[in-house]
Amino acid sequence: MCRWLAYSGTPIRLEELLVKRDRSLIDQSLHARQGATPTNGDGFGVGWYEDGGDRPPRLYRSTHPAWNDRNLRELAAGIESPLFFAHIRASTGTAIQETNTHPFRYGRWLWMHNGLIREFARLRRELVLAVDDSLFLSIEGTTDSELMFFLALTFGLQDDPVTAVERMVGFVEQTGHRTGVDQPIQMTIAASDGRTIWAFRYSSEHDSRSLYFSTRMDALKAHYPDIEELTGLSDETRVVVSEPLGDLPGAWNEVPESHVGIVQPGDDELRPFTPRLA
Amino acid sequence: MCRWLAYSGTPIRLEELLVKRDRSLIDQSLHARQGATPTNGDGFGVGWYEDGGDRPPRLYRSTHPAWNDRNLRELAAGIESPLFFAHIRASTGTAIQETNTHPFRYGRWLWMHNGLIREFARLRRELVLAVDDSLFLSIEGTTDSELMFFLALTFGLQDDPVTAVERMVGFVEQTGHRTGVDQPIQMTIAASDGRTIWAFRYSSEHDSRSLYFSTRMDALKAHYPDIEELTGLSDETRVVVSEPLGDLPGAWNEVPESHVGIVQPGDDELRPFTPRLA
Amino acid sequence: MCRWLAYSGTPIRLEELLVKRDRSLIDQSLHARQGATPTNGDGFGVGWYEDGGDRPPRLYRSTHPAWNDRNLRELAAGIESPLFFAHIRASTGTAIQETNTHPFRYGRWLWMHNGLIREFARLRRELVLAVDDSLFLSIEGTTDSELMFFLALTFGLQDDPVTAVERMVGFVEQTGHRTGVDQPIQMTIAASDGRTIWAFRYSSEHDSRSLYFSTRMDALKAHYPDIEELTGLSDETRVVVSEPLGDLPGAWNEVPESHVGIVQPGDDELRPFTPRLA
Amino acid sequence: MCRWLAYSGTPIRLEELLVKRDRSLIDQSLHARQGATPTNGDGFGVGWYEDGGDRPPRLYRSTHPAWNDRNLRELAAGIESPLFFAHIRASTGTAIQETNTHPFRYGRWLWMHNGLIREFARLRRELVLAVDDSLFLSIEGTTDSELMFFLALTFGLQDDPVTAVERMVGFVEQTGHRTGVDQPIQMTIAASDGRTIWAFRYSSEHDSRSLYFSTRMDALKAHYPDIEELTGLSDETRVVVSEPLGDLPGAWNEVPESHVGIVQPGDDELRPFTPRLA
After folding, report:
1. What is the distance in angstroms between the CA of the first residue and the CA of the last residue of chain B?
2. Which of A40, A157, B26, B118 has the CA that lies 20 to 30 A from B20?
């Protein structure tokens, strides 16, 4: 079990969401409320895009718990970004090492995941074999999460992200069913190319881990004209999170089961998500 | 808040108490039941004496959480000892670094602590100045716990341990009261010279953190003749712990408030503990 | 022995000096040419100020060797700064931990050091006692370097940096001589408040570790009109380094023995440095 | 480039060879003399068997440089073993993480390597595919060294070690040649099952990294009757090393090019090593 957060909008310091909230992501590393486990202390990572640039995103990943890593607080105070990911890890068994820590990066793409592929040990070899030759060497770790990323890349993530993830999930389920795994996949996933964020909520058993998106900023500002920190944020600013960062009524909305949310320039979208076979 | 464990008796593998129990110390690093906080993920340490030798104890200390440190499991499986300490840390503010991790060592002595000196920041300088010149350079970290050790050494820990700790506590309380700190100290402490373990339970407010000692082995074996793992243990085998390692009725006894337990060759002792002024 | 680098001028990515040079600081961590030891693998740190802001500087410090730390390369590529420090450490005996890693910070001030206080173990207690009460609690580590910083702060670093460092050195030498240490101090030091950099080169034996400053940019650009990377740099841009980052003839000038260089808005200065007694 | 050491004989403390020699392995981590690089600071590992037991070997592996890891010195002083491996790493490109650190373990077997598979990136996928299904899941890291171990296991290491390694090398060379890699492999390798050590020296170009074995103890003791530390060692005691641990004339002998040394109960052996095709 893990917790994650994806932000898109007016450039802000990372610490605004990672540190300076009652239920900031750092707080959730010790005291998650809605997760399978309260402690997410098996490392963390942040990935961020720069404002207005075409550079690849930058990563800071560590195997220490987020709550006691001083460098994380320093960087969160020093780095400003219009689009960033943050993730705190609770390992489901694979080694605690930076290469197993989210977000994962490929070119301009970031990827992070909460959940698991069930009986991954039995399925792993077959799944690895399906990764495209040209991508194989970029796999650095041993997690199911990273492998899902490289399968999605193999299935065309960079061209048609929703279809690619639907095909990835279809392939994992098919592989699982063939080897007798009942409910092969459980996931919330965030992916981004630096402009758009795709946030997926799905599980084979249709009982997926929690996922929320923040209410449109114009509506929120109209409702709470006195909350100062909202005034500086553009109407397009949006946060997607494993669990709400606070208690503000009306601020958080659940992503429905088997759906994908798309945070993008212009109107955001919420679409049904259906695994598909290749 | 922290959790700790001290063992004396028939040489056993460290993993017997650190890993292979329902409520092993590694389990307590994620899920302590009786502590101020459930998570003790700010590093850990073990210190062990060799069987029949006069060598100083050895230390393995790490800033990683005990639950995900592979080396700890390897060493706990590979090292056998007749007297060892183990400690899992929940920092009350000082830096997460090996030199702030328990047990602390000086010569043949080991020391570990659960609790705190209140308003340590205000008292620290005066306490540091009281440490003997010859000991000053051996202070490596910045914790209240290590400083208490060096104050106790200054007050004669190596000659008369109980009196030295009583004087240390008296001095900390006196210093605290003089600067307006109400309840200056909260502690359970274990100290050893490799033959005897002294286990202290005390707090200025007389509401100290939990501390337990195991029942005499002969009594326990008589009561539970069928528990195989007890049969190999000598009658003198004893464990002192922040919280019980299991549910066996009759196996665990609370150290009374303001007392010190002494685990030693021959009959063990339980004595009242009273801070004293120099 | 350590190596360090201080930059002031047109905002650049840290990687320009830390990574992308033949003799970048990361290269020097494995292959220093002019140092007492070729390997500086006992941790590293960077400290940087933001452009145009009044925020305190940010730190990233790690106990890993600079040459194999991926996060350092990520941050060096992602962070741009008009004034930054970087330091690679070769411990002279104190523990390898982040709190012993340069640069050190106090409020808006950064400090880093190459060299040592000789027989520090014998002098340490007396030096610690001279630190001002209000500063004492901010000492986090156990190095001579950090202690020199807090002594300089005690002696007025924030008001008159050159005099404060002269008094710090005078005090260390006096304390050393009184206890029979012949040549108590060896140092190159950089200090900054975010606007000015003070770079000191001094040792009791007048045979100090190497220190260089870069030639004025207008002169360098006139001499090398074809070097593209120079064209974007303001005339005031200046680098101070333990050893040159490359071979360009005329680019590097030695700071003379017992001198302090002052890199500041307007003309920079080079002044004699003389320890003084309180 | 890396350095390694394998010991078999009278049980000794690990520190005897890791710490207490002029050219101990810890010294070689900073100052290797015969290696491709003088610094081997990208982590280290030790693996040791217990005396007289059938337990699997234990591992302690870390990503810190051996020269500044305090835990290593503690364990080397505290652990005694009749057969142990130690390895210091200089990465040839793969990530610095414990799962990429030697020795590697599978059941009762240990394995460590100095050298590389050339153009590993291009060959990796095909080599991975050749690993037996039942072994695939035990691969935890991303190094060429670990993959060579699992290929050797696939080819029968546990039944006929020399043939299995000859087949592994033959397979790597065949795969390399087919994809246009000229000299696919460079290696010195140690493998053990806890009773015997196999030490291989081979490279496709027949210009292999250095490898030495110590002279028979009876001969050495006869020659140096006054060296006290030798007297306690059995005649069968033997050390195999990347480079000599000292200067004693007559003490060290080069393993010839393309040979395997077998250290075992009774007479040791030295045999030619010839890669073979499956």
Report:
1. 29
2. A40
Compute CA C104 distance to the chain's CA centroid, rounded to the nearest angstrom: 10
Q: Do B136 and C142 touch (CB under 8 A)?
A: no
Q: What does the alpha-carbon distance between residue C140 and residue C125 come to, in Å, rounded to a whole number?
A: 15
- pLDDT > 90? residue D215: yes
Nearest CA in chain C to A78: C58
Write out pLDDT tens, residues D181-207: 999 999 999 999 999 999 999 999 999
C23, pLDDT greater than 80? yes
* Region for D76 from its dihedrals, namely left if φ exceeds 0, alpha if ψ lies in -120 to 50, beta otherwise: alpha
User: What's the length of chain A?
Assistant: 278
Looking at residue B88, what is its pLDDT?
94
CA distance A64 to chain B (A): 6
Interface test with A, best of D137, D150, D154 (most A CBs within 10 A): D137
Which candidate from C48, C55, C74 shows the least CB-CB separation from A60? C74
Q: Residue B116 phi/psi, 5° resolution?
A: -165, 160
CA distance B137 to chain C (A): 6
Q: Name residues 79-108 of chain B within 8 A of D (Cβ).
A: 79, 98
Angle, in degrees to the nearest 10, between helices B120-129 and B144-154: 30
How many CA atoms within 13 Å lie on the side-chain side of A229?
Answer: 8
Computed on alpha carbons and rounded to an integer, the radius of gyration of chain B in Å comes to 18
Chain centroid offset of residue D122 CA = 25
DSSP state of A143: -
- Give the closest of B48, B55, B77 to D58, CB-based: B77
Tell whether A142 lies on the interface with B, counting CB pairs under 8 A. Answer: no
| Length of chain D counted residue by residue | 278
d(CA A52, CA A54): 7
Hey, what's the torsion of the CAs at B45, B46, B47, B53, to 10 degrees? -150
Sign of torsion over alpha carbons B158, B159, B161, B167:
negative
Q: How far apart are CA B96 and CA B43, in angstroms?
A: 7
Half-sphere exposure of B255 (CA within 13 A, CB side): 36
D residues 1-40 lying closer than 8 A (beta carbon) to B: none
Burial of residue A196 (number of CB atoms within 10 Å: 0-12, 13-18, 19+): middle
CA distance A259 to A271: 5
Task: Give yes or no for a contact between B172 and B127, defined as CB atoms under 8 angstroms apart.
Answer: yes
**pTM metric for this prediction:** 0.93
On whether the CB atoms of residues C45 and C61 are closer than 8 A, the answer is yes
